[in-house]
Request: fold
Amino acid sequence: MARLARPFDFLEVAAYSEDTDKLRHANAWQVRLYGWGILLVAGSVLAGAWLIVRQAALEIQRARERSDFVMSVSHDLRTPVSSIKVLAESLYLGHVAEPEKRQRFLGTIVAECDRLADMIERVLFFVRQEQKGMAYVREPVDAGRLTAEIATHLSP
Reply:
């Protein structure tokens, strides 16, 4: 029952259903629909939250990997630079008198420069790969030849 607004506030309006079973049935459907709607919204929110947390965890992992990579690269780049600097300073300051020793120092400087260039090339390779600017191409490799090249490169 409801009262009407002024100036009809003396009137009361009431509505009654002739078929109460239909009304109860409609009410039950409405309750079910609201329940399923709430479950659907809650499920969507939980799924969205799970996706966000998962994506955040992946981004954190990528950031850690990048940080570790940068730390490793900076450490690896310092070694040849330090060697080059020490040898070049010794030559520049005239601390190496023997021509044989000078030649060996210069050879080491050249080798360290080559090593440094290789490292920089590898860093650029990884940067390009992360930016999706490169793709892998698989091809057969002679492992014996590759091992021999590496041994030659790493031998003193």
Notes: The helical segments are 20-92, 99-130, 143-154.
